Amino acid sequence: MELKPHDLIKLSSLTNGFLTKEYELPQWAQNSLQVSPYVVVRRAPFKGGYIPIGVRGKKRSERFGFYISKSKISEVISPIQLQESFPSKERRHLKAFQTLKRVREILQTEERWGLGGSVGFELATGVETVKETSDVDVILYKEDAIDTKKARKLLADLGDLQSRVDISVETKFGSFSLMEYCSKESFLLKTIEGPKLIQKPFSP
Description:
GO terms for molecular function: nucleotidyltransferase activity. By secondary structure, this protein is of the alpha+beta class. Helices cover 23% and strands 27% of the residues. It contains 5 helices and 11 strands; from the N terminus they run E-H-E-E-E-E-H-E-H-E-H-E-E-H-E-E. The protein is globular. The two termini are 24 Å apart.
């Protein structure tokens, strides 16, 4: 099983198998895992049989990273699997979910894309993480160079929707912002070693 950043992992238990001792987790993180035992794979080096993961709380500031044993994996949900996932009827009125309808239409021509952030987390887990001000985080998976003209057209189509749509591009070398790619000569590539300032994201 190849785990990638943004993948969601459902934990099989909340005891043992942590490189961080349970008592070292912030109280909000412990509470969050009790409510929903899901964590997200972080962009960091793996340590043997341990996976870099992050837990999210109710607030934007509540994020905590640590490591878990692969033996704690109960289920893995990739962003791509969430393309056709839908919120509950009671939550569909939120701007982010209304925006998602149009996002799906616009991305029909894209072969591999998925959903991350609060939208992806709620679709995967059912936990109400999306707020009225939430963005829609889209992940495009690319192996070859991007046509800048097409990318700018995509950004323009997504730029006039109810909620902000943030697009990141995942490559085998790391991840970058599609907006920065289209507007700057040099931009940040997020890698497992940390951010790098680059000009060509599809070459080592």
